[in-house]
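for the recovery benchmark. tokens below, seq after
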């Protein structure tokens, strides 16, 4: 039962044939019916925080073993961590950090492992765990708003448990929680005073619009005024040359708080889900009115109106982690877009530029779009696509998801521990 990642490593980084006790992490196991859980088998929350830090900052960065093996190990150990939290009924800010870190891992792992076989990676189970974790995060934030569960004394900083790049234990590990709470602001609980100050400053600077409406009224539905002119954009091969979708089409929007991150991820993972949209619209204005959540809301509205080109265009503004969250939807959106074009722009003897359409639909290259056309039964001739009405249907099978060069470039600019560990204020 000892995993390869729990074996000792020599000074040259080579795996040895004997276990390393300090690298052991409790594995997940379903309790038998009627079996009582012993208190000695359940780890306290500070230990769970350290374990999450070790898994995401150390184990996920291992280079000498295949990523599929690393993913299976971390996936199993995160399940055990969530089980320990559930058994204890912990619902405070420290648990919130753990759940949000787990959600980050599931999002990143779904993108990185998407090309693996089912024996190495089950996308359904990963998305199921991600959905459950994000739902727990959203419910914890609701409890935070009501002030029923998460107390001020429960605040903790995940960075307080980061000592160095190697996992180390000390004799006073039991005091880590108290040491971390001294003077350390939480990376999860949003500073309401700062939020109110920013909101008031924004209101004073903006004032009223020309039509007499305030900014809070115009952004009530989460849609920014500057994007209203583009609401009716559709994929059209005749004009993709002027409005091609690339990473240079706008600056990437940054994320300023963990609350904003949770809401945006919830919207992107559940893209087009009306219940998720209504849940986010019911959040406080200082959350749903942020740029990132507003962008995710606009993407959902475009999805619901079948404006798939606009969804793809807006996705280029997402930060790296959120592009990974959107990635599972890309294959479906690209297929639906080709289906719409095939129905509306089919003309006998006419073809459309493969290169321009590949940029509009966010394919890595014209060859990638040509491969998709061959998969869906569309003809490619002399560097162009020949659309024939009725060739592709909405029930056409999806191509298997693959890595995107654009997303790979964004991920390469962010260290993996920084991507996986929630360190926002």
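predicted aa per position
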């Amino acid at each position: 039962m000892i995993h390869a990642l729990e074996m000792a490593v020599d000074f040259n980084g080579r795996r040895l044939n004997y276990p390393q006790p300090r690298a052991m992490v409790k594995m997940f196991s379903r309790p038998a019916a009627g079996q009582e859980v012993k208190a000695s088998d359940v780890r306290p929350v500070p230990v769970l925080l350290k374990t999450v830090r070790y898994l995401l900052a150390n184990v996920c960065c291992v280079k000498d073993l295949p990523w599929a093996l690393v993913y299976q190990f971390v996936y199993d150990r995160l399940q055990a961590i969530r089980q320990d939290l559930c058994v204890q009924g912990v619902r405070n800010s420290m648990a919130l950090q753990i759940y949000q870190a787990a959600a980050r891992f599931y999002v990143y792992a779904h993108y990185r492992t998407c090309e693996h076989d089912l024996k190495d990676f089950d996308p359904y189970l990963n998305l199921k765990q991600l959905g459950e974790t994000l739902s727990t995060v959203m419910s914890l934030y609701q409890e935070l708003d009501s002030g029923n569960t998460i107390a001020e004394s429960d605040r903790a900083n995940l960075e307080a448990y980061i000592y160095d790049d190697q996992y180390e234990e000390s004799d006073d590990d039991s005091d880590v929680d108290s040491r971390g709470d001294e003077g350390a602001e939480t990376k999860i609980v949003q500073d309401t005073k700062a939020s109110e100050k920013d909101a008031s400053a924004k209101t004073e600077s903006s004032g009223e619009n020309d039509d007499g409406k305030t900014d809070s009224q115009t952004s009530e539905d989460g849609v920014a005024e500057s994007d209203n002119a583009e609401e009716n954009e559709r994929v059209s091969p005749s004009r993709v040359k002027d409005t091609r979708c690339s990473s240079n089409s706008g600056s990437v929007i940054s994320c300023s708080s963990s609350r904003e991150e949770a809401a945006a991820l919830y919207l992107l993972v559940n893209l087009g889900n009306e219940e998720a949209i209504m849940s986010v619209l019911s959040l406080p204005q200082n959350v749903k009115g942020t740029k990132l959540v507003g962008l995710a809301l606009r993407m959902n509205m475009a999805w619901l109106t079948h404006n798939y080109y606009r969804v793809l265009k807006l996705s280029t503004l997402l930060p790296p982690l959120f592009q990974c969250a959107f990635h599972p939807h890309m294959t479906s959106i690209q297929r639906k877009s080709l289906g719409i074009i095939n129905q509306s722009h089919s003309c006998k003897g006419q073809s459309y530029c493969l290169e321009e359409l590949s940029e509009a639909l966010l394919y890595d290259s014209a060859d990638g779009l040509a491969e998709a056309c061959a998969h869906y039964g569309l003809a490619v001739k002399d560097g162009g696509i020949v659309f024939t009405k009725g060739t592709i249907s909405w029930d056409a099978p999806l191509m298997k998801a693959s890595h995107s060069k654009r997303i790979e470039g964004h991920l390469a600019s962010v260290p993996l521990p920084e991507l996986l560990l929630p360190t926002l204020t």
